[in-house]
Amino acid sequence: MKSWVEISERRLAGNYGLLKEAAGGDTAVLAVVKANAYGHGAAVCAPVLARAGAEWLGVTDVEEGAAVREALAGAGISRAEQPEILVMSGLLREDAGDVIRHGLTPVVWLKEQMEWLVEGAGRSGGAAVPVHVEVDTGMARQGVVAGPELDALLGWVGGSPGFGWMG
């Protein structure tokens, strides 16, 4: 016997709404659609979540982020109405240009990753590039270690051309 999954757009949107409500109105909730929405179809789930008010969508890599952007546009959601897309697995040098081109937000934790983005932004006319600085909270998976390493990275960001603090 084969198995299948049916996605109820109404229930997916409703579940997102319940999580958003539980988190509190001022808290952004990231809806994770990585791994093709865990096999359920990111091209189906991402537009539903965007229409439900998701401010952020989480993907594994830049290729997946670009595909989600395309799915959102294909569903008639304008770029201005699309959620931010967080690339959760980090940044490779060869992906910096695509991050900028598709308006993605990479997770970074190394000075070199920031430098690659500065290079890519320079080739793209100096566009601003948002980043999410990943801090290793003890699992030793990815991220900068809190303490002197984090202080050095944040100091570099604050004092480097092409980067600065928003506020």
Characterise the protein shown here.
There is one protein chain. The chain has 167 residues and is of the alpha/beta class. The chain has a domain at 90-162. Helix content is 44%, strand content 13%. The chain has a five-stranded parallel beta sheet. Helix 1 (9-23) crosses helix 3 (42-51) and helix 3 crosses helix 4 (62-74). The longest helix is centred in the first third of the chain and has 15 residues, at 9-23. The chain is globular and about 50 Å long. The termini are far apart. The relative contact order is 0.10. The model has no long low-confidence stretch (mean pLDDT 89).
- Elements, N to C (H/E): HEHHEHEHEHEEEH
Radius of gyration: 17 Å
Strand content: 5-15%
Q: What is the helix content?
A: 40-55%
Shape assignment: globular
Number of helices: 7
Offer a concise description of the structure.
Helix content is about 45%, strand content about 15%.
Reconstruct the topology from this structure.
Blueprint (H helix, E strand, L loop, with lengths): L8 H15 L6 E3 L1 H5 L3 H10 L4 E4 L2 H13 L9 E4 L8 H6 L3 E4 L2 H13 L8 E2 L1 E2 L7 E2 L2 H12 L8
Parallel strand pairs: 1-2, 2-3, 3-4, 4-5, 6-7
Helix pairs in contact: 1-3, 3-4
What are the main properties of this structure?
167 residues; alpha/beta; five-stranded parallel β-sheet; two-stranded parallel sheet; 7 strands; globular
